[in-house]
Amino acid sequence: AIAAYTAKAAEKVRKHRSLASQLFVFIEKHPFALCDSSYATITLSEPTSHTPQLIQRAKEAITTLFKQGTAYRKVGVILEGLVSESCYQQDLFAQQPNNGCQNAAVMKLMDQMNKHFGRRIIHTAAEGVKQEWKMRQQQQSNHYTTDWNQILTIKI
């Protein structure tokens, strides 16, 4: 679940031509109790919108928060510290050379394919195939005020 949410957030960040410099990852046992939630903030050495890199860091954070045998109800990720992809401060002392151009080209191609052929046509393996953890929406109310196809019709 955390991989799928991170991928979706990264896609939105790329859509706005931005990069994230921090990840905020949280996990909750109960949806309304603040004491039943744990969170971690990860600061990245360089801002990025590269999905595999963000997923890797989010999974590292979630493994520190997860406790075996505990039932969780909610997990999420927030990308913070957004900067424009056209101007950001690179890490002068980075151990590895920055592959930003290659990563951006791969992510752009992935986004184009998903836009053209449908959502999740191309996705990372970490996101899963069936996603049995997804929300159950059987009791969801209609969207009378926001969806033209669901507008009420009154017969007299």
- The termini sit apart by 47 Å
User: How many beta-strand runs?
Assistant: 4
Q: Radius of gyration from the CA trace?
A: 19 Å
Coarse shape = globular
**Main sheet specs:** 4 strands, antiparallel
Low-confidence stretches: none
Q: Roughly what fraction of the amino acids lie in strands?
A: 15-25%
Structural class of the secondary structure composition?
alpha+beta
Break the fold down into its secondary structure elements and pairings:
Blueprint: H1 2-15, E1 18-28, E2 37-48, H2 51-65, E3 74-80, E4 83-84, H3 100-117
Antiparallel strand pairs: 1-2, 1-3, 1-4
Helix pairs in contact: 1-2
Structural description of this entry:
The protein is α+β, with helices and mostly antiparallel strands and 156 residues long. Helices cover 30% and strands 21% of the residues. It contains three helices and four strands, in the order αββαββα. Strands 1, 2, 3 and 4 form a four-stranded antiparallel sheet that branches. β1 (18-28) and β2 (37-48) form a beta hairpin. It is globular, with a radius of gyration of 19 Å. The model has no long low-confidence stretch (mean pLDDT 84).
